[in-house]
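Sequence only, no structure available. Ideas?
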Amino acid sequence: MSIWSDVRLALRLLRRAKGMTALAVLSTALSVGAMAAVFTAVRAVLIERLPYARPDELVIFRADYRNVTESQGDWVFRREAEEILRRSRTLAETGFWANSVYDLGGDGTRPPEALYGLQMTASLLPALGVTPMLGRNIHKSEEQDTGSEMILSYGLWMRRFHGDRSVVGQTVTANGRACRIIGVMGPEFNFPLKREAQHTPQPYVEFWAPMALEKRKMLGNVQMVARMKPGASLAEAQQDVAAISEALAREFPDSNRNRILRAGRLRDRAIGQAGKALWLLMAAAGMFLLIGCANVANLLLARGLGRQREIAIRVALGARGGRIVRQLLTESCVLAVLGGAAGYAVAVAAWRILPLVAPRTIPRLAGAQADWRVLVFALATAVANGLLFGLAPAWRASRTGELGARGAATGRRDWLRGALVAAEVAITVTLVITGGRLLVNFMALLRMDPGFQQDRVLAAVVLPQPARYREPAARALVYKRFLEAARAMPGVVNAGTVDALPFSGENNGGFVTTRTEDIANRKWQLVAEVDTVGGDYLRAMGARLEEGRWFHDEEEDTAIVSDLTARKLWPGETALGKRLCVSCSPEQPDNWKRVVGVTSNMRHLGLEGEAEGSVYLAGNAMRRAQFLVVRTERPAREYEQALRRAVASVDPQQPVLLSVSMRMFVGDSLAARRFLMLLLTTTGLLALAMSAGGIYGVVAYTTSRRTQEIGIRMALGATPRNVHGLVFREGFATVAVGLAIGMVATLAAEKALRAYLPGLAGGGAGDMWLAVAVVLTTAALACWAPSRRAMRVDPMAALRVE
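Reply:
I predicted one. Tokens follow.
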């Protein structure tokens, strides 16, 4: 008989057992669907090659300070970038860039629009090994006139210019001056993958324009990517850069004494910690897949017991054991293919929803799609599991000599079903504890006070066009008018400006000290967020004044510090009237400020980790302002359009990059944690439901096979309560074994899990026992229902059962 005959027979037999088939397909669909959904994310973020030529050869650079534990960005000084290029023995091609915002002028049919993009050197695209889809790259000569040319992203080309191929060569108004469009990048290109700003109107870079590298200050920041020479390894490149870093520290001690230059693979820096999180999700999905596998195996074991006579007749007619195993494995594989196809449908449905909650901080995640490769993965996974969960039942069913009298299951057979149930419970305990702890940690983060008002504070990014407001005085004047227009809005309580808003991705980390002798050595200086504020910014954010006073208008050489900064700099003393040097160095040793106030602490980088101190300065606030902040009487979202109109009333050609409430900024900072928590918690709940179904199925089926035994016990005097206790204890004993194994495995793996999930570090014994109680309660209910039914067995009817 051919394999196709086996398939046709399997389909006929499965149609006869509609209930079992439906349960098996559902179990497989959920488990394979979860695996396929996570694989979709893993493939998009970790497996798919970056859209650059030979991406494994690309490295990116950053500078760390010796007394700062983590770098805040992949940037270096211009002088460092040039020295790396000049001295390196392992790097062949380099490119430089810096973040930028261009204001695209309106043309009567389209309003002005602020775009987030890059200024770059002409060498960047060649270093990446890419060319524009339309048009050309920037020429070296065009770097001298920054802002005269631009290359569009594919998304901007389609959205703003409707895919018009003749747009190349056209001139638009950008930042108040004529700018020629010289190219359009392809749809797959996005650089850099990891954006510094957490909030922009579009999730991708929208343009690339020339950058005049030589016009930047030697200690000005640039970002740098390089391609390693053929044959050079990453370790060699890192050693090369480390040697250059040491040389610069000796040659330029004032600026580089405490700086350490590092090189890392572009892909690793772009993905960051997201890679660990996605692999952990993959492991959780694999554990959930094992639960589905165990459920189907138990169903097939139970079905095999019900087919004893059929198999015995086949053996009597001459069928060999191998032939029976082949037929039963074919049936399990047919089930698996049906479940795999349904699982792919589950993954497709999931990825119609997941992009809505996918964090922008994980590159390429929002664009993940469950395509034909995911279908192949789902079917292959399902078939592999079909062979796995069908092998033991097929082998058992073929050994007809092991069948007990009247088709009862023997003790030698019961241990396998019990082992499968125990494994389900153990896996479920691990998933529920992990998901539960993440949920508890996430809820604690949501309850954490960031130190400012969230619901009634609206922030807008307004960057006056440099071509029209080139002079600092002109920029300060127009920003002052923006602030006045915002204050005049009905319902506005306070309004102010700041150059780096908390939770926006922008930060001005700096060094502060109170002693002159520490200026030359930043090792002894305090790292703090140093922001320049104007108007009533601190009151608009809802900060509390702990000591002293707020800033006066046009105040200079004064500072307000957060209470955390005050405690670190002057423990046990008042900060009022004290002096501190802000971002001082041997070249600039006299930037001393007098403290006039102490405010409550506002978190700047995020809710996770230790709080950081802040220093607020008032001098030249309007010249450095980037964020316009207003505190409102009603929810901030009701004022978004009104704030845009207020800015337009001052300058109709000045677009607003974005306007969003502080709650949205805070929510965006938790997006990656929320996404991971959502998927792990959902997996844990599904595992809980599936394992409960598996426990119920095994206990119910075992109880039904013992109907005659139960009748005899009751005929000999056993009470219904005795029967109920017997069945419940035997079912729950297996659960207890699985629970113990799961708790031991979870505790053993918790240290490793904390490296992947920092939120688990905050979990306590209470969280774990709550998760265990949930699993115990669910398992007890699954055992209780069959045992309740067993106590209602009629002894006389049971004794007549074949």
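The longest helix spans residues 321-357.
Hope that gets you unstuck.
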